[in-house]
Design a protein that fits this description.
It comes from Chenopodium quinoa (Quinoa). Pfam families: DAGK_acc, DAGK_cat. A seven-stranded antiparallel sheet has the order 6-7-5-17-14-9-10. The protein is elongated, with a radius of gyration of 23 Å. The chain folds into two domains: 15-181, Rossmann fold, CATH 3.40.50; 190-423 and 457-466, no CATH class. Helix 3 (85-101) packs parallel to helix 5 (122-135) and helix 8 crosses helix 9 (270-283). It has twelve helices and 17 strands. It is of the alpha+beta class.
């Protein structure tokens, strides 16, 4: 098929781009400011929007952005340093709704078939997942995560690999073809809330390494009108998809991010990044934690850990071995390996040798518990700060030493659609090949979810700037 349309309108212009017509989206679909004059009526089999964190992977992010833009309509490839994803997707979906009212068949089919590609680290992936969750889109698109960071845990779990990808045209074309063939899976997301009394001295705002990343929309103070706010207390809330960690892993990650932001020229190679990560574990004493980080660094000495196994059930304190540091997360390569069962795994690590499994394909920590909800109650004066990490983004969290009511609570929030290769490690509880498959499995737990508590809890905060215009029919967006 020959394409003869004006390139300024975002259409293919030659047979050289014919093989990518299955992914192409014309400009008038992306934004109402463009006119559909001369656009092809061919319906792409796998229309994609590509989000690239051009700072991820050293120089790779910028190279990848250029390659995608050379193969697709430039306007369907978004540099996250230039445009926020919530603004882009809200513009796109509002335009799609308007075109559907005009019975535009291409717009209808593109909305049904649309897939997202996210190239960046786990923090970038979590940002996009949070935006899609917050916007509550009609036909929310499934998401493929291209590894472009240091850990790349989400891409690895869903079959996209851990190594940073090639940025040449053949590599990008191969990845897009995998996206077209990929299967859809759901993934749980999790709400996290931390509450403490306002300290008499000092500040308890989260301290990020040099600057707050976008994904630390993941953790912020609630507004005075939010139902979770309590007088005389500081309340923070946010969400995550992959893992929340506290202690060793988060502290080393904090040091790594601080060093990388001070000296970005030293962090342009994935293997070098991982080696630096390991060296920081050494310099901070975590490879011999029992010697350099005695009881005051052990989670068992810092807080009580409680779990709730059923919605509306009782809190049960779990035993944390004195040799264990701490991590909790959706470590679905552990047993049972389901990414959509509404359950969270509680995993402990003895030291950094044990914790380096985060960078190892087949490693795992010590599974301590599994629950619908988990709660940490810090002991009074146990420590004046701790390190926390959400999906690859760390921060230092000051704690009031005169307060015995510092609480961190994690609960199930909802689900979003992911794209996975057919041989991926992640497993679904709805997969008929699973021994525990149940077609009637229901994990929504609406009465027990944070969303039931108030409007602010129903969002991650990743798309807080989005507001649906009054003239838009809301029935199309819910």
């Amino acid at each position: 098929m020959q394409f003869n349309f004006n390139h300024s309108m975002g259409d293919p212009v030659s047979e050289s781009n014919e093989q990518l017509k299955e992914f192409w989206i014309p400009d008038y679909i992306l934004n109402q400011d463009f006119q559909p004059e001369g656009c092809s009526s061919d319906i792409p089999e796998c229309p994609v929007i590509v989000f690239v964190n051009s700072k991820s992977g050293g120089q790779l992010g910028g190279n990848l952005l250029e390659t995608y833009r050379s193969l697709l309509n430039t306007n369907q490839v978004v540099d996250l340093l230039e445009q926020a994803p919530d603004k882009f997707l809200s513009t796109l979906y509002l335009n799609l709704e308007n075109l559907k009212k005009k019975e535009d068949d291409l717009a209808i089919k593109i909305q049904e078939k649309l897939r997202l590609v996210v190239a960046g680290g786990d923090g970038t992936a979590g940002w996009i997942l949070g935006v899609v969750c917050d916007l509550k889109l009609s036909h929310p698109p499934p998401i493929a995560t291209m590894p472009l960071g240091t850990g790349n845990n989400l891409p690895f779990a869903f079959g996209w690999g851990k190594k940073n990808p090639g940025t040449d045209q053949p590599s990008v074309k191969s990845f897009l073809n995998q996206v077209m063939k990929a299967k859809e899976m759901k993934i749980d997301n999790w709400h996290i809330l931390m509450r403490m009394k306002i300290p008499t001295e000092g500040n308890c705002e989260p301290i990020a390494p040099l600057e707050l990343p976008h994904s630390l929309n993941a953790f912020h103070r609630v507004s005075p009108t939010d139902s979770s706010n309590m007088e005389g207390h500081l309340t923070f809330r946010g969400g995550f998809w992959n893992y929340f960690s506290m202690g060793m892993d988060a502290q080393v990650s904090y040091a790594f991010h601080s060093e990388r932001k001070l000296n970005p020229e030293k962090f342009k190679n994935q293997l070098v990044n991982q080696s630096t990560y390991a060296k920081l574990g050494c310099t901070q004493g975590w490879f011999f934690a029992s010697l350099f980080h005695p009881a005051d660094k052990n989670i068992a000495q810092l807080a009580k850990v409680k779990t709730m196994k059923k919605p509306g059930g009782e809190w049960e304190e779990i035993h944390i071995p004195h040799s264990a540091l701490f991590k909790t997360g959706v470590q679905k390569e552990l047993t049972p390996p389901y990414v959509d069962d509404g359950l969270i795994e509680v995993v402990g690590f003895r030291d950094a040798w044990h914790g380096l499994v985060l960078l190892a394909p087949n490693g795992h920590g010590t599974r301590l518990a599994q629950a619908k909800r988990i709660r940490f109650e810090f002991h009074k004066g146990a420590t004046n700060h701790t390190f926390m990490r959400i999906d690859g983004e760390p921060w230092k969290q000051p704690l009031p030493v005169d307060d015995d009511a510092v609480v961190v609570e994690i609960s199930h929030h909802g689900q979003v659609n992911m794209l996975a290769t057919h041989d991926c490690r992640a497993k679904s509880i709805r997969d008929p090949s699973s021994l525990h498959y149940s077609a009637n499995e229901d994990n929504d737990d609406e009465d027990d979810s944070p969303a039931a508590a108030g409007e602010e809890w129903s969002k991650f905060g990743a798309a807080s700037t989005f507001r649906i215009p009054d003239e838009v029919d809301l029935s199309h967006l819910s």
